[in-house]
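Reminder: ligand-aware prediction takes two inputs, not one.
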Amino acid sequence: MKTPKFLLPVATAGVLALTLSACGGGGGGGTTGGNAGGDAAQGLEGRGPITYVQGKDNSNVVRPLIEKWNAAHPNEKVTFKEQTDQADQQHDDLVQNYQAKNANYDVASVDVVWTAEFAAKGWLQPLKDKMALDTAAMLKPTVDSASYKGTLYAAPVSSDGGILYYRKDLVPTAPKTWDEMMGMCSVAKANNMGCFAGQYAKYEGLTVNASEAINSFDGSVLDKDGKPSLNSPAAKEGLSALAKAYADGNIPKEGITFQEEQGRQAFQDGKLLFHRNWPYLYNLATTEGSSKVKDVLGMAALPGKSGPGASSLGGHSAAISVYSKNKATALDFVKFLVNEENQKFFATQGSLAPVLTSLYGDQALVAKLPYLPVLKTSIENAVPRPVTPFYPAVTKAIQENAYAAIKGEKTVDAALSDMQKSIESASAGQ
Ligand code: GLC
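Here is what comes back for the chain with alpha-D-glucopyranose:
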């Protein structure tokens, strides 16, 4: 392999970068994180039709925005390519199309955890020089998570922070700690419903949930130097909390199959007392005709060991493919997605977390969506997942071992020690 050994900058501004001494990676950009002289230099002036690729538009936010854009830009129309609602499938679809240098994946919605991988492969157009985007008005964590090695590679479009949804009619005050919440599971039993669930199927959402458990018990996936730190008593306490809750039924058995949508459905059907999910749930749970929780939906910070816990930082950014032929149109469309009016629409139409800081203090918006200030704190305190071009191997190590531990197929000690070893070997470029 041609790629030399390199180190990533570590832990800048709250972003935990995994310290790597790695071979491999491949792809056009290699370690420079771009291919400025190649595809990235092409198509900059190009205007014409483009495609926008994104996961399932659960709350019908993207379609109306694209209609609005198309009405105003008849010669630069955007076609929406809608992917599934599953994060891993979205990732694999993007990888396949970038590898094939598909010029039609002009703009794609990139999960915060894919920025480093895609940028290092040279697939994303750096947003600088002619393609620059002003990010001064955006929440800092969203900008950091769309950047790699100091360069912006995508426009933050929506952020995400985990929220504890609960049944206000059954639990007057939200639990602040995990133990308090487990103590309230008797209420669930008495009402013949499951107590708590997040996302525990073996996919990206489990990495989110396992990391939250570890962080919320004061552990961490990486230490401040970017090295895996899973062999700690705190990490053990966090993962054990999930494993124990699953073993004793406080997390119902079907929870092991949940991605976001299955959990949301169970909660909306009245089958769960507490549910960890993202802000998008609010809109659907309060507007869908079938929702049983419309008038009794409580929202609070995730519970931690001795107070509020720590969410994993989620969210998506719009990235322009280096292979696009119409990058001038693509950049205008990206700017359109992040203008104030449309950012408000993301919030009001889909209860998605805007990236513009000012909107969290916008009185009219807060009056409509009273949870916005809480969400802002959640996002500002959220812990990023590891930042590394080798993220697929890192997340696999977390998912597989957390899954085995929750199901009781591995002890928590063995799972954490295997997680630690696999992340170390991913870092060693295996
Ligand atoms: C949400 C988050 C994203 C996360 C995914 C996991 O879409 O925004 O960051 O990776 O859920 O399923």
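The domain at 11-160+314-380 is CATH 3.40.190.10 (D-Maltodextrin-Binding Protein; domain 2). The two ends are 12 Å apart (CA to CA). We will return to this case in the review session.
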